[in-house]
Specification:
Layout (H helix, E strand, L loop, with lengths): L5 E7 L10 E10 L2 E11 L5 H11 L6 E5 L2 E2 L3 E2 L2 H8 L3 E5 L5 H11 L4 H10 L4 E7 L2 E10 L3 H11 L7 H11 L2
Parallel strand pairs: 1-4, 4-7
Antiparallel strand pairs: 1-2, 2-3, 5-6, 7-9, 8-9
Length: 186
């Protein structure tokens, strides 16, 4: 693994559920190591099913440069869940979905059943297919922090090595942290 691996990190922009606006921005930030190189974006449907295809498109548009794909969780725009396996299979890029805390699967399942009574199993499948949720620690400017992740196409040891290179100010990798910050201004 290079000292300054090139990553693309994704997060969604802020949005309101009780409004006539039915889309939000999907923000992607390309970083070389911890230095931002490029910002990309696309619209996704709130509670829709298009985040996976939009992420694949944005990766393909930047695939010459990107070595690793990172996402801030597997949910975007409410319950627009991404399929990590499809993203990995379609792009050939290792993918890591980062979260700051353990996921309460039962609570998520209950929420999906209420919001999507007839189709919740399709969305729930993406969570199950994401695989194990691993825990590790990263040493940042603020000290040692726990972080959790799902991974496809990359080993747990490689993820831990990668995180050491791309987490400096926060336990979130820089490309994801910057995408998150950009998403807050929309």
């Amino acid at each position: 693994m290079k000292d300054n691996p090139i990553t693309i990190g994704f997060d969604d922009a802020t949005f309101k559920l009780k409004t006539s606006v039915k889309t939000t921005q999907l923000i992607g930030v390309v970083c070389q190591g911890t230095r931002m190189v490029r910002v990309v974006r696309d619209d996704i449907k709130i509670d829709g099913d298009d985040a996976t295809e939009k992420i694949i498109k944005l990766i393909r548009d930047n695939e010459k440069h990107v070595q690793y794909v990172l996402t801030h969780t597997i949910t975007f725009g409410g319950f627009n869940l991404v399929n990590l396996t499809d993203i990995y299979n379609e792009t050939g890029k290792p993918i890591i979905a980062i979260t700051e805390r353990k996921v309460d699967f039962d609570s998520v399942e209950s929420a999906l059943k209420i919001k999507f009574p007839h189709t919740y199993k399709n969305k729930l499948r993406y969570i199950v297919e994401a695989g194990n949720l691993y825990e590790t620690e990263v040493n940042t400017a603020g000290g040692i922090s726990k972080i959790f992740f799902h991974n496809k196409g990359i080993s747990v040891k490689e993820v831990e090595s990668l995180l050491k290179k791309i987490c400096i100010d926060s336990k979130l990798p820089e490309s994801v942290r910057i995408a998150h910050l950009i998403g807050k201004i929309f």
